[in-house]
Amino acid sequence: MARTASEVVSLVGTLGQVLKSEKRSCATHGDYTDHLTGLGKARSAAWHGCNRCNAANRAEDTRREQQRLIRDNLRRSIEGRVGRSCIPRRFSDRSLAGFCVDGEGQASALRICTDYAENFLAHARMGRSLMLLGTVGTGKTHLATAIGNHVIRRLGMTALYLTASSAFRHVKASFGSDSPHTEVQAYALFESPDLLILDEVGVQNVTEFERTVMFEMINSRYEAMKPTIVISNRGKDELPTYMGDRVVDRLRENGGKLVLFTWESQRGKEDV
Ligand SMILES: [Zn+2]
């Protein structure tokens, strides 16, 4: 039986009042009785439609809303971890896929770093560290922060990026009587993340104090079986001078890998 549009618009009932009932058929759920129901004096009455379709739609809405909440929480949690990682803005979206390969050396470095990122859980369980050594502008920080980004975004773990000089400053800042943190807290910061990336090691001659900081930092992570990525412009043989022999030993233990960046600087060609 056909209804005219004017009939639908004109019918008004009190809330929940059934004004009319009709046999209908739902393409999915078959025959059902539909009710034209009042929605109060201010609105026209409306047909319910298929109850089972309505219930399915409500369930779908709930499912979507839940997924949206989970996605939002995940995004906020990732953003929080990215924010706390101190990875410089310039490197915050660096990826392994975005590393420019131009020769066997770069291909090999990328392979090792990709393996380190993709098997991070296994490497972390062994406390296996990584040393990226070589001249300025060869992409060491790019690859290290790409691993950090992978650890944060894909694995939901934590990473912290620090230059050696900022690590030294952070410990020194704990010495004053009105310092914002204690020395213990300073070292706890270095030990807490799942991955620590220590950049610019050996840019200047180190003092005995700095060598001690370096040892405490790397050793506490070593004892907690937590990996560290060390980045330096110094060569393999010079590194012990700037970090101390014991630190380099710690980094090499449990199969810690050393990657040499021997190709010429890519600065100017791309932003490395
Ligand atoms: Zn239906």
UniProtKB/TrEMBL annotation:
Sequence ranges assigned to domain AAA+ ATPase in this UniProt record: 126-254
Biological process terms in GO annotation: DNA replication
One MF annotation (Gene Ontology) recorded for this entry: ATP binding
InterPro entries: AAA+_ATPase, IstB_ATP-bd, P-loop_NTPase
Family annotation (Pfam families): IstB_IS21
SMART domains assigned to the protein according to its UniProt record, in alphabetical order: AAA
Domain of life: Bacteria
Protein name: DNA replication protein DnaC
